[in-house]
Amino acid sequence: MLRPGGAYDHEGGATPLDLGPARDQASDLLAAEDSAEVADEGEDDRALGPEPLERHRGAALVEHGEAGEGAGEQIVHEVHCNRPAISLTMRDVRGYGGRILYVDVTDGRSRIEAVSDEMARGLLGGNGFAVRLLLDQVPAGTDAYDPANAVAFAVGPITDTTVPGNSRACVAGKSPLTGLFFDSTFGGRFPATMKRTGFDAIVIGGRAAEPVYVKVTEAGAEIKPARGLWGKTTRDTVLAVQAVEGGDADVMAIGPGGERLVRFAAMGTYWKNREAFAGRGGLAAVLGSKRVKALVVAGARKTEVADPAALKALLEQQREPLKTGTKALSTYGTPVLVKPINTLGALGAYNLRREVFAEALAISGEEMHARFHDRHTTCLKCPVACGKQYEVREGELTGLRAKMPEYETIFAFGSMLGNAHPGSLVRANDLCDLLGLDTISMGVTLAFVCEAVERGWLTEKDLGLPFGWGDWRGMLRLIEMTAMREGFGDRLAEGAWRLAESVHPEGTRLVYAVKRLELPAHSARALKGMSIGYATATRGGSHHDTRPTPQYAQNFDRRSPDGKPEFAVKSQHFTAVDDSLVLCRFTSERGFGLYVDEPYARMVAAVTGWDMTAEELERVGERVINLERLFNVREGVRRQDDALPWRVMHEPIPDGPSAGAYCPPEELGLMLDRYYALRGWDGDGVPTPARLSALGL
Ligand code: SF4
User: Fold this and answer.
1) Are residues 588 and 680 located together in one domain of the fold?
2) Ligand 1 centre and the CA of 583: distance in Å?
3) CB of 592 closer than 6 A to ligand 1?
4) CB atoms within 10 A of CB 55
């Protein structure tokens, strides 16, 4: 029943382009320059093995030895999956490795299970696989830092195919921030390399006695000592491990933030053309609690496609819409959103006391591009190249070369903090990447601190330094203190909600978070679809459960609650499917559509060989959402948890083009009633047996 097949028993080896009032500006952007300079850089020059897994013979990989001090000195644990792979149950299905690898870092044992046809067709991969595996693996009520929690990395049938934006993976676990199911996706080169190991999912459980890294190849897992890596930044860790394992291996690493169990710690992978981060939900801290510094993947197994001609025809058809729809992203990256969303009156500022930031121009994509642009960067084989390398050429941060901060990061460290210093945004983003912190949670937590200081709830003595609106130097220092849990940083590391609870009896009223996850930069007040979307999202304050993109379109009634529960349901099915395939949101939304529809069904059919319809795919999305809800219901989530930040429910936007917009509790209640009815859940938000049975759960 939608679970892995038989065990091998140790024998087997956001970014809208139709922007309503800002449409003219968006049109100008569509005509902007191409990103031809990176066209070749996203290519992969590594060799692929031609043989399918059935004929693959896993090489013996076990060595024995004492734990050493540094990266890759000797293998610590014996690995129990070193015998040749046996036949898979998925003989006629393409697009999959067909295997799931479980690794327990407590004793180094691992096992492999086959992916059943039912599980693949019913859940696709990525997000779908991860929630199924975690529901099975993690007992109810488990603390996120308990060894019984698990971290699942999962790819999907589209990963490492020719579909643009295919090098994408999902990492999931029980979040230390929300205490609920959480998945975060990331790009770069790592996802394609993981697919080449022939494992569709890698599940890491237990807790090692000493810091380790886990290396996964086509033959299975090795646990290697990483004491010498502990304390290093994400980038230094990746470089150090690649120096041992080779440049064709890819490394996902945690930083000091994850080691110190910062509840919103992020993990990162670096490749010459693009670094990528799984930022949200604190899953890097779960790895830190297991003393796992990094996951390393290396492989050469080719992903087979059932009908290459059909896939090629589909991609030909989508080429033009994708190219047109991503021009602005290719040129400026996501910061291009700052100006139009501010013009809409929907850019949170000063801890959401306002939604217009007077100095938005200074931190807009166009301004940052003009000042800092160095080169475009891209995930493996992606023609869009939405990433940018920046170089700061003026002021006291001169010489800083770092990744472009995304739109969400500019909101969190810029407008939310009343900070219009663009160079400091580049530095804050870089610090968070290196130290392993989620930029949205960090910035929104600091925004709460600014307001708490202003109200006298926190003092300079509490913080250990002066800090307030627009103080970018204080911001940079507090980021470092958070990652190291130094002084007041120890309290910041708990996230905005827990900090607020400890600061003042009414502290949580100032926190911009849902289910303790700090919200991103798509307004919960100005976009009514986001109101119901955030409230019902599995992850809480995430813009990747319900999508803001369609709501910026000129013909979308963003102010009225009418039809928004229906919209949220549809949008959530889309994101669940997208994250299960696994596809980049930008390439999928712009190339193949904003909802589950025919192009996605054709894509899945061409890759797997199934006679997939859009309706069946929609049910996959619904199934994944219901599994996520079951996980959260098991942890106690009910209707009262499907709430919005106090300010969103009680304080209308004070001025600007979206003045007056908010979502009072009564309005949210009516939308929840409708949403639960559409989902076939009871009035308390619990999935009914009848609906679960209809979904085969
Ligand atoms: S659009 Fe951007 S994030 Fe998506 S795959 Fe391409 S480069 Fe990566």
Assistant:
1) yes
2) 9
3) no
4) 10
Residue 378 above 80 pLDDT?
A: yes
479 lines ligand 1 (CB under 6 A): no
- 162 alpha carbon – ligand 1 mean position (Å): 14
- What's residue 93's pLDDT? 84
Segments in 277-344 forming alpha helices (H): 283-289, 308-325, 327-332, 338-343
Are 482 and 437 a contacting pair, CB within 8 Å?
yes
Pocket test for ligand 1, best of 384, 388, 404, 583 (most atoms within 8 A of CB): 384
pLDDT mean over 134-140: 97
Using CA atoms of 648, 653, 659, 660 in order, give the dihedral in degrees to the nearest 10.
Answer: 50
Residue 356 lies in a domain: yes
Say yes or no to pLDDT of 24 above 70.
Answer: no
Question: Is residue 38 within 6 Å of ligand 1 at its C-beta?
Answer: no
The domain of 686 spans 518-694
Q: Are residues 522 and 491 in the same domain?
A: no
Interatomic CA distance for residues 89 and 63, integer angstroms: 30
622 and 585 within one domain: yes
User: Which tens digits make up the pLDDT trace of 167-183?
Assistant: 999 999 999 999 999 99
Q: Ligand 1 centre from 586 Cα, in Å?
A: 7
**Alpha-helical segments (H) within 247-307:** 256-259, 283-289
Nearest 5°: phi and psi at 173? 180, -175
Mean pLDDT for 115-119 is 96
> Considering the domain boundaries, does residue 97 fall inside one?
yes
Indicate whether 174 and 264 sit together in one domain. Answer: yes
Residue 88 belongs to a domain with what CATH number? 3.60.9.10
CATH number at residue 677: 1.10.599.10
What pTM was estimated for this model as a whole? 0.91
669 in any annotated domain = yes
Altogether, the residues listed in the chain come to a count of 697
* Domain match, 290 and 357 both: no
Check if 190 has its Cβ closer than 6 Å to any atom of ligand 1: no
Q: Which of 471, 503, 535 is where one domain is finished?
A: 503
Answer whether 35 contacts ligand 1 (Cβ < 6 A).
no
CB of residue 169 inside a 6 A radius of ligand 1: no
pLDDT tens figures, 80-100:
443 333 334 566 789 999 999
CA of 166 to the centre of ligand 1 (A): 9
How far apart are the CA of 189 and the centre of ligand 1, in A?
A: 11
Total count of domains within the chain: 3
CA distance 78 to 343: 59
Indicate if ligand 1 lies below 6 Å from the C-beta of 188.
no
Q: Kindly state if the Cβ of 276 falls inside 6 Å of ligand 1.
A: no
Whole-number pLDDT of residue 594: 97
385 close to ligand 1 (CB < 6 Angstrom): yes
Same domain, 260 and 393: no
Rounded Cα gap, residues 18 and 307, in angstroms: 34
Asked whether residue 541 falls in the same domain as residue 612, the answer is yes
User: Does residue 323 share a domain with residue 208?
Assistant: no
CA atoms of 548 and 540, how far apart (whole Å): 14
Distance (angstroms) between ligand 1 centre and the Cα of 336 equals: 15
The CATH number of the domain holding residue 386 is 1.10.569.10
Ligand 1 centroid to residue 631 C-alpha, Å: 30
Which pLDDT value is given to residue 165?
Answer: 97
Q: Is the pLDDT of residue 330 over 70?
A: yes
Q: Is residue 10 part of a domain?
A: no
Is it the case that residue 379 has pLDDT exceeding 60? yes
